[in-house]
Structure formats: C-alpha cells, structure tokens
Amino acid sequence: MANLEEKLTLWYTELKGENFPLVGKKNANLGEMLKAGIPISPGFAITIHANDIFIRESGVKADLEELIANECRETTPENIAKLSQFAMAAIEKAPLPKALEEHILNDYHKLCEICDVTNLPVAVRSSGAVSMPGQMETYLNIRGDKDLIDYIRKCWASSYCVEALTYRINRELGVLFNIGVGIPKMVNSRVSGVIFTINPLNGDPSKISIDASYGLGEAVVSGLVTPDTYLIDKITLDPVKIHKGSKEVECVYRTGSSDIIEQEVDEARRQAQALTPEELRQLCITSKQIEKYYGKAYDIEFGIDADLKFPDNIIILQVRPESIWNKKKAEKKTTEPADAMNMILNQLIKGVKFS
Amino acid sequence: MAKQFLDPHDVPQIEGTEGWERMYPYYYQFSTDDKERNEYESSQLWYYDGLHYPEPHCPFDLIWDEAWYLALSQYNSRIFMVPPAKGIDHRIVNGHVYITPIGIADPKEIESRIPLFMKRAGYYYQNWDKIYGDWVEKTKVLIEELEAVEFKNLPEMEDESVVFEHRGMGSGYDLCVKYDELINMGFKVWQYHFEMLNLGYAAYVTFINTANQFFPDIPMATLTKMVSGIDVVMYRPDSELIKLAKLALELKLESDLNGQTSFAALKQELEGSDAGQKWLAAFEEARYPWFHISTGTGWFHHNKSWNDDLDVPLASIKMHIEALQAGKDPSRPTEKLIEERDRIVEGYLDLFQNADDRKAFEEALGIARKVFPYVENHLFYVEHWFHSVFWNKMRDLSAVLVDGGMINDVEDIWYLNRFDIKVLIDDMVRAWATGIVPAGRNKWPQEIEWRKGVMAKFREWTPPPALGVPPEVVTEPFSIVLWGVTTDVLKRWLSSLDVAGGDVTELFGSPGSSGVVEGKARVIKKVEDLALLQAGEILVAPTTSPSWAPAFTKIAGAITDVGGPMCHAAIVCREYGLPTVVGTGNGTSVIKTGDIIKIDGDSGLVNIIK
User: Fold this and answer.
1) Average pLDDT over all residues of chain A
2) Where would I find the H helices in B104-168?
3) Domains by residue range for chain A, with CATH
4) What is the spatial distance between Cα B47 and Cα B4, in angstroms, rounded to a whole number?
5) Residue A192 in 3-state DSSP?
6) pLDDT tens-digit profile of B9-67?
7) Under CATH, domain B504-608 is a member of which superfamily?
8) Sequence-ordered alpha helix ranges (H) in B291-417
9) Strand pairing partners for B70?
C-alpha cells in the first residue's frame, strides 16, 4: 500500500482518528466513526497534502509568502484583511493541477456509482487539523464535476477568511494553512439536530440531550428555530423531559437547486414531535455507542434521511468531544463519609431540596 | 400573587351545617378561645390531605386519621427522636382533614437529639430484616385476634353458663369491653404501621435525594426499578387471580365463567362438575388472606374488599382470561424485572468517576433496598387486610345496636364517632340491664339523619388546597415525597387563588409514570365499573389499588385524584409503562367521560382539550 502521506484522497473507510494530520479532524473523525460502526454518510476526504500541492503548483503559495514578507509584515487588522482578500481571490481562480483534478473527479464518480445517482449531490466540508469552530466554510448540495471543483476551491479559500486568519495569527499557527476537505453524500434531512451524550446544562452523565427540528441542520445550529428538546435517561432510554419547540420554519433545498431556502412549517407539524419514539431510541443507542467508543462525552450532529427507511435513515453527520464538561475535572460531590446512617441523618436535618 | 392562604380560623361555615364540629373530637377543631394555640395555628401552613382523603370524613372513619396522628407523630418526636422533627398536627374543616408538619427550630435541641436518633434508629436499620420478620408475625397475630372478636345481641336472659361457670361478668359489660378492645386493636395496628415506616421512608428519601444529587432529574421510575422488590405482597392478590384464570382455561371452564357476572350463580353452576369443584376449591383457598384486598385505599368504610363482593375478583379473572386467550401473559415478568433492575444499577454505577461518590450511591441504594419490602408490603397487612376485617366487625357491632333500638340501620353507624358510640353503648347496656328504654333512642337516629345532610353538604364543598402561611421553602421530606407538596406546588396553589372561576382546562398532579398520551377519558369511581373501560382510553380514577390491575393491560394512561410519586398507583403504572399523573386532587369531578384529555407523566400536567 502506498504511503498514506502521499495520497491525494482517502475514502472514509480508509481513515482512522489518528490520521487527522493528513485529512483534518472532521474527516479523520468520520473514519473513526465508521470503524466504531456508527452510521455516517458515505464519501471521501481530500487530503491536506492535496491542498498543499494545489497552492504550491498554482503559485498561490509563493505569491502569499511574498506578500507576507513585504507589504503585510505587521499584523494589523488592515493587513489581515488585505492578506485574506488576496489569498481567497487567488485560490478561487487558480486552476487545479490536472492530476489532482482527475483524481478527485474519479473518486466522485465512484461515489455516484456507489449511491446509484448521477451527479450525486454532495457536501463540501472544510476539515482543519486544528479545531477552528465555525470559521471555515461548508457547502451543501453540490452536484456535477464543475461545481464540485469550484466549491473545493472555495472551501480551501475559506481557510483564509479574516476570522480564520485572525484566529491563527493570535495563536501563532501561521498564515499559511492547508486544510482537508470532506466530500460526503448529501443527507436529505427530513429532521436534523444535535445530541450531547450528557446533560450540557449541568454535566450530568446519566442523560442524553437531543435538540431536533425539521429540515436541514442549519435551522437548529444557527438558532433559527426553537427545536424540540429531549432529555433521555441514558441507562433506561426513557424520556425524562420532552419540550416541544415552536419549529416555525425549516431549511430545505430549493427544488433542483443548491441553495437553501427557509419555508414555513405547517401547524400540524409544529405541534407534533419532530422525532418518533423509535428514532429517539435509535439515536440514543447510537449516541451511547459513540460515547463508549471514544470514552468521553460527545457532541453529535445527526440527520434523519427522508429517502431512507428506519433505521437506515439515521445518519450521523458530525461528532466532536463535548468541549465544556470534559475539561472540568469530575468534582467529588460527597463531602461526608459515605455511611448510610450518616446520610439518612443529614437528609433529615437538611431536608429535601428537589422539586 | 397572593402571599398566604386563607387563615384557618376564617374558613366560612357552610349554610345548614352549623354545629358540625360535634361530629368530630374537639381536639380536631381550630381553636377559638386559646390565644397561644390560635396564634400557632395561624402561623403554620396547613395542607389538605388529599393523598389519603379524596372525600370528607364520616365521623367514624376519622379513626384512621386519629390513629396515624398519634402513631406517626410519636415515633418521630418521642421514640426515634428524629432530630429536626416533631409530629404532624391535624385539624378538620368542614369534614376535610388538614395537616401540618411540626419542626424543631432550635439548633441546640436538634444537636442534642442526634446521638439519641443514631442509637435508636441505628438499631432498627441494623436489625431491619429480623424486626420486619417479627413485625409480620405480630401483625398476623393481631389480625387473628381481630377475627376472633364477636358481637352478639344482648340476650333476654343470660346463658346459664354465666352462673355455673361463675364467670362473674355479664353481656352488657362484655359489649362495652369488646367495643373498647376493637378500637384499641385499630389503634394498635397503626402503632405497628409506623414502627418501621418513618425510618423506611427516611431511607428511601435519602436514596432519592442522593441519586438526584449525582444525576439531576433522574426519573422516579428509574429509582423505583432500582429498589423494586421482586416478591412484593401487594402484587399477590392479582397474581392469585391470574392463577385462577389459567386454571379455568386448563379445566376448560372459560365459557362457564364468561356466562356469569354473579359469583353466587357461577358457584351454583360449577358445583355440579368435578372440574368446577376443583376450581372453586382453588378459588376458596386464594380468598384467605389475598381477597382481603380493598377495592379502594381501605381508608373509608365504603371501600369494599374482594371478599365483600366476589363479583369483583370474578370480573378481573374474566379480564385475565381474555388477555390469556389473546396470547398476552398478564403475569408479572419477575425474571425480566430482576434482569432489568440489575442492568440499570450496573449502568448507573458505571457512570461514576469517583470512588467516594460511587460508595455513597451504593450505600444509599443498599439501605433503600433493605427498607423497600416493608414500605411496599405494610399496606396489605394494615390498610387492606386489617381494615377490611375491621369494617365488617364494626358492621357486626352496628347490627347489635340496631337490635337494641339505638339506630335504624347497620350503615348508620359511620355517622357516629368513636366516642359517640361508646356513650351510646353505655346507654344501651344500662337500659337493657335495668329493663327500661334507653335515653338516647330518639336522639341518635335524629342526629344521624342530620349528620347525613351535613355530609352531603361537605361533599359538595371544594376544600382549599392549603390554609395559613406557607414557608419560604418546603424541605420536610414526607410532605414532598408522599404528598407532593413542594415549594413550586405551593406557588401554583397561591397563584390559583388569583384566578376567578371559569372552566378548568388544566389540572396539575405529581408525575407518576413517564410519557405523554392523548386520548378519550373514562371516569371510573368504583372498581365494579371497570368493565366499562374501552381499549386505549385514559382511566380517570379516585385512586387505584392492586384490584384495578387488570385494567392496566387495556388503557393508554391513568390519572388519579390522590397520591404522590411514591404512592402505590404510581408504582404500579410505572411497571406497566403507562403515562400517569397522580394526585390531581379533583380529576374525577372536573374531567367527564368522553373528554379528550392529554396527560404528561413527566411534568404532571393534565390538559382537557375538549
């Protein structure tokens, strides 16, 4: 087998979590998930190495280095803006090296074949080897060879947006920065949402917390709607609290097009729960599997695919370690010696606090 | 929002009931002439004990309230020296019982009680299983004594054995003594009842609170599954019925059973065949003691037991036969429950990342499991078995009073309190001994008629949920766990004072069993009407006891008027996985059969949709 470092693309099925320096964290995570038996959308990753070949061979790298060495030596906001503008424009218009383009399209056609769809709609997702939450772009519902290549360039370019540049400069990660790109099949989400394998409000490890609303994940992630919230007992999988959100709108693709539109959700669907009890249960089982595999609390994005049947319709879109409670040292809650009589006495003296 | 409830001394009289106070002991009245008591009463929060009493008390029925007023209080305050607690005080207003827990405010006094409590309660916890074993034995002995009590009409002439065996006592005296003994047994069984119950609840509450400390919002259903006993006496009556249903199928008697709604008629039919006789023998064997289960809570004289009306268990056996024929096994899946219990406990223990926390959880779980059989099973011995026998002994006594010309009907006795009856018996035996007419023979029937009118008016009155001044925060464990009186609940009650009349579309209770369900309501006030239930309906009942169990395979959810999250109805519904709200207070009077209702077993909210 050829050296992984030199690969231009890698299928998710070829990846492990430890490969993140090659393809970025998101992509490596997806590979790891497949290994753990977690259902994800099929696809492949364009490596960081491929990004490097692109900016080197297209001359963008040399131009950028010159700009940094001369005009933009000082890291003022003006210079960052200038660098960003230059890099993004250059990347978006530079042609891909022929071998690289062929290689990517070859894999894309293979993916179309696997899913039995011509011009399969895919997502083009940025995947950095360092987490930079929300600072780089992801493009959805991209179809056809030409658009795919265009959006891969846009995705690469997005790692030079002002926010990402500022973030890197502040952390001394360097201006030049290659990223991985993921190309998964688009999930046609009827419902989507976010899962925490703990209660994110208090760190309680015995709960699974799920937010879900209709349509694509954008509506939930960006706070466009009040989603349904489900708090589930992790051990018994019984619902502890269910709060139905208003779910006024949903994000969907405009028919036959790549752009996302918001549309009203009718009253009957607003009143209903977005997830069926079976879907809820299956999501919890999958979430537990994810948590168990990684050995810590996780933050999970999911979609319920409208075209597939339960349970194949449950697709995990993205996973990452939960970022707050994992860092806190699990604090000991008991202060008194754990002796039943003492506990009963304290209970009687302090009274009951829960409602 | 209102800051406090109506002062207990200011509750308006119901017109036409003036003088009702004499129906109950004077110490149940809010005081009028004692300044110190008056001030104390005004400063407390008194809540209506809807958990036990969905209806006003007939004067005699107050006996069980008197019994636990004494027993619970004394075990807390004087026997186990529970550090921060005295007893629970009781009053009666328009026939409805209000209670208030009395705490100890002085930290020094609390401190001084701690070593006493540790020594005394510690002894019970350490020897729990042995003491519980003894408890069952002595309670059974007491029930045997109760069964042996006999009331006979006063004879025209004493039997000659009184002379020749020189007994030295006559029937008049005997009647007085036997009545006293009967009442004393009633109080005694309630002394037993609380011998272990306060400590049992304290341990259980400790477990609930400890689990909540580690796992906030852990469902009560999960906690119950972790401690739930497997050999639970309260499930035994229903499992006897399931056995009888299976036996009927085995003996091919199902069509005989299905053809009859009256047990008497069925019995006549079955006596004609060997198979029938075999089944009847099994039925007879199951009756003692298991059919002493009450169709209600056992707290009221009208709560009949299965033994009082054999048509009730017969109807349930038929429902079980129906389920069995449809391929469903109505038996309690014991092995599955054990497996599930172990799996849940293991799952929770795995969540701990710290050995001290884990140890604390295990300790609390251990003690909760130890006390749980008592907490669940005592109900059968006291409220069901003892009470069912006791009510009938009272009816036997009442027949003697009818014979003596003191009252008109056996069922009239409930309108007299226990002191009235004592005086009445004294009057009767003296008149009998003397050979004249008793002094009260006109007074009591008239008084009873008047009291019946008062009771009818009491039943129409809606008792306010609370009186007096609420505390800032409710922390008293029993109020919270048994009665569901939390700080939030008090706020809700206070805010409801601001709402003027209008149609009720929302009811609140305690979350009984998880889940949300919408459906057609079926209001059933008596277990005899269970046959009216249609599959998929939501049962709306005053309360449910195990004799309602056959209904649970049919319904989509349940609501009860009385009960907290740990009451038996809630526990049973959790086992059947039915969304349940308990303790709504007045669900059976607000909701009508056919209403479309929605119940949320997680929040305790009930919506009447149309």
Assistant:
1) 88
2) 107-126, 128-148, 161-164
3) 4-184 (3.30.1490.20), 189-321 (3.30.470.20)
4) 12
5) strand
6) 999 999 999 999 999 999 999 998 899 999 999 999 998 887 788 789 999 999 999 99
7) Phosphohistidine domain (3.50.30.10)
8) 311-325, 334-350, 355-379, 387-403
9) none
Check CB contact under 8 Å for B363 and A351: no
- Which of B118, B344, B366 comes nearest A235 by C-beta? B344
Is the Cβ–Cβ distance between A236 and A251 less than 8 Å? Answer: no
User: What pLDDT does residue B586 have?
Assistant: 74
Distance CA A136, CA A154 (A): 10
Provide mean pLDDT across the span A218-237.
87
Query: In whole angstroms, what separates CA A25 from the centre of its chain?
Result: 10
Distance between CA atoms of residues A75 and B240, nearest Å:
84
In this prediction, residue A15 has a pLDDT band, given cuts at 50, 70 and 90, of very high
Task: Please name the member of B205, B216, B356 whose beta carbon is closest to the beta carbon of A347.
Answer: B205
Reported ipTM: the value is 0.81
Helices vs strands, H then E, count in chain B:
21, 12
Q: How many angstroms away from the CA of A286 is the closest CA of chain B?
A: 16
Nearest 5°: the CA angle B293, B299, B303 is 55
The predicted-structure confidence for B505-532, as pLDDT tens digits, reads as follows: 888 877 777 788 899 999 987 777 887 8
- Per-residue pLDDT of B151-165, as tens digits, reads 999 999 999 999 999
A238 neighbourhood in chain B, CB within 8 Å: 219, 221-222, 514
How far apart, in whole angstroms, are the C-alpha atoms of residue A31 and residue A44?
9
Helix (H, G, I), strand (E, B) or coil at A246: coil
Helix H segments across A38-181?
48-57, 60-69, 77-93, 98-115, 145-158, 162-170
Best interface-test mutation with B: which of A243, A344, A354, A355 has the largest number of B CBs within 10 A? Answer: A344
Q: Which residue among B348, B359, B481 sits closest to A235, beta carbon to beta carbon? A: B348
